[in-house]
């Protein structure tokens, strides 16, 4: 089996609207830290100087949002209302794992430019590759935006979906939609510009707002979809980290292909 990584890294060196803070305790600093933790929490005295080179195990501390790097949005991210079920929308730790290990298909939107595309564009791409969606297929959108990952342009220039496109996929039983862009919706500037021009509230983040009435998840900030030698006929594994009560969770998304692909 061939495994292709489709994830973008969490990298404190890249541009993020919410900056990533990554602090590292090296092995010597971590030895002192471990000694202090053992004494303060467990009443155990231990001199780290007896360790080889006085070193223990390095320790990384990170400050970041659950929407940094490749991640999966849970229904609770979209709002407090869930018209499709009794009770509130589910958090990421409540989602069924079988949603995230499924056959997948890639739709190429790399020629669409900045803005939101509709159902007609997705259907045309499905027809081009000769694929009929099955319930629970994972649909991945290749926009090419990951080429700008780590820069400000990554957050301002990419292709998203309008409401009709999301409904088209959900109507076919899709429950997970992924993109290599910052968001499944169009960029903030494009959305606000169209709203100010038209006064139409339906252009305000429709891909996310639909999640208040139809339960589904988004994978955002994928990378490297151009590495895939096929548009269909592979499986995607993208299990989210189990963060209790969270609206999203980081994921290591990988495509699994037969060796002959």
TrEMBL record:
Q: Which InterPro entries match?
A: KFase/CYL (IPR007325), KFase_sf (IPR037175)
Supply the Gene3D superfamilies for this chain.
Putative cyclase (3.50.30.50)
A single Pfam family, by name? Cyclase
Q: Which domain of life is it from?
A: Bacteria
Task: List GO BP terms, alphabetically.
Answer: L-tryptophan catabolic process to kynurenine
- Provide the GO MF annotations for this entry: arylformamidase activity
Check the record and name the PANTHER family matching this protein: CYCLASE-LIKE PROTEIN 2
For this entry, the protein name equals Niv3
Q: Which organism is it from?
A: Streptomyces sp. Ls2151
Q: In the UniProt record, what gene is named as encoding this protein?
A: niv3
